[in-house]
Amino acid sequence: MEPATAFNDAWQRQSDPDPTGWPGGRGPSNPAWVLVSALWLLAAWAPEDGPGWAATVAFDPAGQDGERVDRAPADELVALISAAAHVDDARRGSLVRWLAEGMYGDLAPVAGAAGDPALHLRYRDYCGTARIVLAPAPEVRRPPVLAADGADGALRTRIGCLATMLSEHLMVNNNNSVDFRFRIGTVPEADLPEGERLAAAVRWWSETREDAEEYADEKPVFRAVSFPRLRTALHHVARLSLVELMDGEWSGIEEMPETPPGHIVTHAVDDLVDLIEGRLRGALVVVDGFLPDEWPPPDMEEAEEEVHVLFVRGDEVGVLDLDFSC
What we know:
The protein folds into 2 domains: about 25-145, no CATH class; about 175-325, Protein Transport Mog1p, Chain A (3-Layer(aba) Sandwich). It contains 7 helices and 9 strands. It has helices spanning about 30-45, 75-85, 90-100, 155-170, 195-210, 225-240, 265-280, and strands at about 55-60, 105-110, 120-125, 130-135, 180-185, 225, 285-290, 305-315, 315-325. A hairpin with a 2-residue loop joins β8 (about 305-315) and β9 (about 315-325). The longest helix has 17 residues, at about 155-170. The relative contact order is 0.14.
């Protein structure tokens, strides 16, 4: 699988899976990709047997779509979006709440045509405006995929949405986000004994990483973890990096508040781990770099700019990179 990254990643942007599908031919700006990722996750997280609905987004970078509206009250937006997308669970509810009150940009309901049962919303940010329509449909319209991604198409799009949402909320500092990137490859030595597969996977990773030439002489030290410990560590990363906790009201790691219950990043971290474990079930999981699976994290001063997690199963290797560089 080609790298799954945030759709607005500054260095390794994931390809738009449906570049011709935007009305008017204009795709999202960087800020609007967060909006699109939230809507696609709202569809991806919908139950298979639930009521149908479909989201359409039309962008107008010139901001001239006719209506000037103020941001609507959050509770009103939550009620409208939840009804249109048939949201009745905590995970999708956290997305709706973020759309209503946490998203950058203004969002408000606007009128559709007479008798139109769809919910029409107008979005505005400094890059322009968009018209969002949530309409009844025979089934839920799932996020688009790249045909070249084959069986991993839905996985790649969904992880791209998760990476976009996580990078929106998790920051290294005031200017730099924590970036998440995931890919799957195949080691050339397919018939190695079990005891030699990790070494082969590390060799493959060292040769195929983006900065392979720069780190050619590096000797990475991977340590084994489990999927549950990885999940715990990523929740700790989220707590350490959640931008809304960077308010200056606490001092020292002992006073750092916990991630608010039901926060969207909690659901995003869980979904990311669930997706990788589901795709590479039974894999050996190893980590190179600072990934705190204890709280408070020991040796914070040893935190590194990059963390690499390998998932080794047979001749397949999954790679999850966390980039904390500034």
